[in-house]
Design brief:
2 domains; Ribosomal Protein L22, Chain A; 225 residues; binds coenzyme A; alpha+beta
């Protein structure tokens, strides 16, 4: 996951089993009573989140749960969590460096019948057919890209985004993708017109990441003309 992120971000991941997964009491309280499998998945995500925060030099702190199931990061931090069978990851950055992060992991296999039609526009599917044929499941890459886009989008706007509200173009040559927002009126004028990300396929997984740089105001002062 690290390779998909800018240097200001840090990621941590768990591949397979990890004996040292930890969850904080505040997080247990926020999660409530859930099946064992969900507890394990949640704890793995929070463990990755804390490892990534430590890699940024930040103290361990709870990552709670928002009203829309989003992770609630300690003040000054943005981040994202993903899990799928056998894999879990979290990515974090300081809010002063990045406005949003969205990451997603998926098993590298074709989507179940009918799902591609449900999450894409006809023109997106046509574009997928033009990508190099071979072992890569482009439909899964598209799906994962949209999930990452949603997580970053939600961080920015706190609004819902449907799969068909974004037109995603995948670039096979450099492992990048661009999501053009078709419908963003509800999110207000500050909502981005597009989001960029990148992907990698390996180890039976598709990993995608979207990051949004923080736009810093131009400073006027000595030396400015
Ligand atoms: C929320 C969603 C993106 C999660 O993706 P997923 O593949 O099911 O599961 P992942 O393991 O990758 O991600 C789950 C994590 O996403 C995070 N998450 C959940 N809701 C979120 C939100 N609204 N915003 C940001 N992150 C969110 C959580 O950290 C969650 O893990 P946790 O519950 O253990 O903390 C997905 O369930 C969903 O609702 N998708 C529909 C919206 C969408 O993707 N639109 C596409 C627009 S192009």
């Amino acid at each position: 996951m690290d390779g998909l992120l800018p240097t200001v971000a840090r990621a941590a991941q768990i591949v397979g089993h990890d004996d040292d997964v930890r969850i904080l009491p505040e997080e247990v309280a926020a999660l409530g009573r859930v099946p064992q499998a969900r507890m394990r998945e949640f704890a793995a995500g929070r463990t990755c989140a804390r490892r990534a925060m430590r890699a940024l030099g930040l103290p361990a702190a709870p990552v709670l749960i928002g009203a829309h199931r989003e992770p609630v990061w300690p003040r000054g931090i943005v981040g994202s969590i993903t899990h799928c069978p056998g894999y879990c990851a979290a990515a974090v950055a300081l809010e002063r460096d990045l406005a949003a992060v969205g990451i997603d992991a998926e098993p590298h296999e074709g989507l179940p019948a009918g799902l591609l039609q449900a999450i894409s526009a006809p023109a997106e599917r046509t574009a997928l057919e033009d990508l190099p044929s071979g072992p890569l499941c482009w439909d899964r890459v598209l799906f994962s890209a949209k999930e990452s886009i949603y997580k970053a989008w939600f961080t920015l706007t706190r609004t819902w985004l449907d799969f068909t509200d974004v037109f995603v173009t995948v670039h096979s040559a450099d492992g990048s993708f661009h999501g053009r927002l078709i419908e963003r009126a509800a999110a207000g004028k500050t909502a981005p017109a597009g989001l960029d990300g990148c992907f990698v396929v390996g180890g039976g997984l598709v990993l995608t990441a979207v990051t949004v740089a923080r736009v810093r105001p131009l400073r006027s002062g000595v030396g400015d003309r």
